[in-house]
Amino acid sequence: MRSKLKLVVNNKFKKKEKFFVKNELRSILNLYAKKVSAGDWKDYGLSINKKEISFDIYQRASEKPIYRISKSLSPKRKDEKFYILDRNGNIIRKSEDLETLIRRVEWTKLKLIK
Questions:
Q1: How confident is the model at residue 10 (pLDDT cuts 50, 70, 90)?
Q2: Could you tell me if residue 15 is inside a domain?
Q3: Pairwise CA distance, residues 81 & 62, whole Å
Q4: Containing domain of residue 30, as a range?
Q5: How many angstroms separate the CA atoms of 30 and 99, rounded?
Q6: Residue 91 within any structural domain of the chain
Q7: 59, 51, 57: which is closest to 69 by C-alpha?
Q8: pLDDT for residue 114 is more than 70
Q9: Residue that wins the pLDDT comparison between 55 and 60
Q10: Is the pLDDT of residue 11 over 90?
C-alpha cells in the first residue's frame, strides 16, 4: 500500500509564539541594563505559563517583583498583547508594541513607597 503524503510549503497557519522573540527580548534587556547600571534594579526572572510570559524585575532578590513586563499569548484585544504590572498586579500601561510601551512609561517617575 502506498500512502499519499503531501508536502506543505508556505503554510498559512502561523505557529503560536511561546516566548519573547529576539527583538522583544533585546528591548527588555536594554532597559534592564540601563536600570541596573543606575542602581535601581537588582535582579530579574522569567515566568512562563499557558496564558502569558513575564519578565519579572526585582529590587532585591528575595522579594516580590516590583514590575512585570508581560506578553499575553492569547490577547482578547489588540492593545492587550503587552502590558506592565506593578507590585500589586495593577496594570500600569498596555500596548500592542513592546518598544512603544517601554518608551512611553516614564521609569524615573515610578517610585516605590515603603
A1: low
A2: no
A3: 29
A4: 22-104
A5: 11
A6: yes
A7: 57
A8: no
A9: 55
A10: no
Query: What distance in Å separates the CA atoms of residue 27 and residue 36, rounded to the nearest whole number?
Result: 14
Residue 3 has pLDDT above 60, yes or no: yes
β-pair partners for 57: 44, 67
User: Does residue 85 lie in a domain region?
Assistant: yes
Distances from the Cα of 71 to the Cα of 35, 62, 90, angstroms: 20, 24, 15
Q: What is the average pLDDT score of the chain?
A: 82
Residue 66 contacts residue 78 (beta carbons within 8 Å): no
CA distance 61 to 19: 23
Identify whether 70 is part of a domain. yes
Alpha carbons 85 and 87: distance in angstroms, whole number = 7
Tell me whether residue 36 is exposed, middle or buried, using C-beta atoms within 10 angstroms of its C-beta: 0 to 12, 13 to 18, 19 or more.
middle
